[in-house]
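Issue 218. Parser rejects a valid record. Input:
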Amino acid sequence: LDLTKNRLTDVGGGILAKAIQRNESLRRLVLEGNLITCEGIARICEAVTNSKLQILKLGKLDLSERGVAAVAVMLENPHCPLRKLDLRSCKLRDSGAIEIFARALKSSNNVSSLEYLCLGRNELGDTEIREIVAALCHNNKLQVLDLQYNTFTDSGLQSLISCLKSSNDTLKKL
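Output the parser choked on:
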């Protein structure tokens, strides 16, 4: 279901959450560029944990720290079916929420089925990349990590490469 660039708000998020819980065949949900805030995202994330949804695209939504916390709780849930999560252009750096997300990525290793993660266009600098790398070094499920169009430097890249050399052998594509 692709609902890109509509004017969906938190009310629509609540409606979608109910639909996600009831629908046995929905595998893909694209909500990029809508007006849904952390309240609607929290409802959707809660619903996803009890669904068959495999792909969730939340690009260009202003998640804020609370929205990222909802995504993190979803990923830590052992019943979360997601294989692909797209958080491109979600202003993750602005809220400092990357720390919350990195902890979830690290702790969800034993329960998550997440194989693809897009964090592109979030202005992630060296500090944020180090947070992600620390989690990645403990994650053995993620196969694709998209970090396009961020702002990290050679230092952030070096952290990433060190992790790949020493501890992560599941990541296939950067």
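Fixed in the parser; the record now loads. The radius of gyration is 15 Å.
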